[in-house]
Design goal:
about 0% strand, about 350 residues, globular, two-stranded antiparallel ribbon, about 55% helix, 4 strands, mainly alpha
């Protein structure tokens, strides 16, 4: 023990004669004389536990870490956790699309003749893939939030009318082997997935459906019937302007109606995105919309080179021009969505859409 400490010899008046009359070489001071030097505890030093006493630092081994170091460690752990979650989400995004593209290649090489018309089948596969994602999102989370029932209603009409045309006639089927049966199967599965998603939103998970945001067309119609403003006028257009590949009025009008209506079916969904005050879109919902947009892009590429086949019985190519125009408008409406979707997938963060004026379309 150091002689400089609080219990060392300097704490008292030392007697060179010893204590107790020679025992140990030290003599006690006379009675009543007291202690010449009093002891007072030194004040603790800032930043240490207990500071130092009598020159001995008693705080070095027991001091708490500075508050700043603790906060930094906590912040670093939080960042590491967020990076890990983001990486897992990014891997999930990659796996979802990698699975789709792998299946597409298998279908192309095994079930297609390699004809250019396979783009029609590819677009149909993308739609089926999108509605499959939507069902996973809805039934796994047991929530219908962020999903437009009006868009689902319109897509049910799209697949129903298209199937009524292609099951009876072959004029609008892909030329390759996928047009023999695969295209029918894909469109049938798409109708099934769409109907299932609509059922989930309207029956078991109706309490989570955001009806207050799905307000497209809610003007002078019963609640929930806003889609009639798209379905009704487009049916009239299809009746008067349609191609004649099946040489059957009902079949030709049904296919044309599905083609035109599909170009507008996503508008209620995009409108609903804009009604959200935060602009945040769940990533699985974003995958669903992106898959539908990707499918439309594939069909647009096909019809760029084939639109001249969509002619009326009189030889007018107006139906072909109208089909191209409607698909082009849909893709233009989705430009913003595609950009923010790409940024969200790349960074594995929620998709956040900007707020626009006007019609409120993305």
């Amino acid at each position: 023990m150091s002689s400089q400490g609080p219990y060392g010899r300097q704490g008292y008046q030392a007697n060179p004669q010893g204590y107790g009359g020679g025992y140990g070489g030290y003599t006690a001071p006379p009675y009543g004389q007291g202690v010449a030097t009093s002891y007072s505890a030194p004040a603790p030093q800032a930043g240490t536990y207990g500071g130092s006493v009598g020159g001995i630092d008693v705080g070095g081994g027991y001091g708490a870490p500075p508050a700043g170091d603790y906060q930094n460690d906590k912040s670093e752990k939080s960042k590491a956790g967020k990076k890990s979650i983001a990486l897992q989400a990014l891997n999930q995004n990659v796996l979802i699309w990698a699975g789709f593209f792998t299946a597409s290649l298998l279908v192309y090489f095994m079930l297609s003749g390699g004809d250019f018309s396979f783009l029609m089948t590819y677009g149909a596969m993308a739609r089926m893939f999108g509605f499959g994602i939507l069902n996973v999102k809805t039934f796994k989370s047991q929530r219908a939030s962020g999903v437009s029932v009006k868009s689902l209603q319109l897509y049910v009409l799209v697949f129903f009318f298209r199937l009524t045309s292609i099951f009876r006639h072959e004029g609008y089927l892909p030329y390759d082997k996928s047009g023999d049966w695969l295209y029918h199967l894909i469109e049938g599965m798409s109708l099934l997935f769409t109907s299932l998603a609509l059922y989930g939103c309207m029956v078991p998970f109706k309490g989570t459906y955001q009806k207050d945001l799905d307000q497209f067309g809610e003007f002078n119609v019963p609640p929930g019937f806003g889609a009639v403003y798209l379905a009704g006028p487009i049916l009239l257009v299809a009746f008067f302007i349609h191609p004649n590949l099946n040489a059957d009025l009902i079949s030709d009008v049904a296919w044309t109606y599905a083609m035109y209506l599909e170009s507008t079916a996503l508008i209620p969904q995009l409108y609903m995105f804009q009604k959200q005050s935060s602009g945040v879109v769940e990533l699985l919902t974003a995958h669903f919309v992106a898959a539908l947009g990707f499918g439309r892009m594939m069909e647009f590429l096909f019809w760029i080179y084939s639109y001249h086949e969509l002619a009326t019985s009189a030889g007018s190519r107006l139906p072909g021009y109208l089909a191209l125009f409607s698909q082009f408008v849909q893709l233009v409406l989705m430009i913003d969505f595609f950009w923010y979707y790409y940024k969200a997938v790349r960074s594995a963060t929620p998709l956040v859409l900007p707020q626009h004026g006007g019609l409120g379309i993305v």
